[in-house]
Amino acid sequence: MTKKHLEDCRLGKEFVNYALTHGAKEVRMGRGDHVVVKGENGQVVIPVGHELGKGLRSKVIKTLLLIGISAMIWLFFILPAIRSV
Fold first, then answer.
1. Least enclosed by CB within 10 Å: which of 2, 31, 65, 73?
2. What is the DSSP string of 3-54?
3. For residues 26 and 28, what is the distance between their CA atoms, to the nearest angstrom?
4. Where along the chain do its domains lie?
5. For the residues 23-50, what does the mean pLDDT come to?
6. How high is the pLDDT of residue 61?
């Protein structure tokens, strides 16, 4: 089942499925249990064999936002929060 919000993803597989449904240009297997997800502006490598820790999960979310996946979250939630400060 694909998560509706990027912040709900905990496992590497959930991040990959989210990226596939929200604009990933290419998804391929990397080395071992890693998957490479390419977006408009770059790529991110996601380990899919286990639950991601807090720091790695945060880094994956930030990178997915930077490469153009989940632009809707950026436009509707993060940008208005920055403007109101």
1. 31
2. -SSGGG--BHHHHHHHHHHTT-SEEEE-STTEEEEE-SS-EEEEE-SSBPPH
3. 7
4. 6-83
5. 89
6. 84
Give the residue-averaged pLDDT of 52-68: 86
Taking the model in full, what pTM does it have? Answer: 0.74
17 token code pair: 């499925």
User: Would you say 85 and 60 are in contact if contact means Cβ atoms under 8 Å apart?
Assistant: no
Please, which residues have CB within 8 angstroms of residue 29's CB and are 6 or more apart in sequence?
A: 35, 36
User: If pLDDT is split at 50, 70 and 90, which confidence band does 40 have?
Assistant: confident
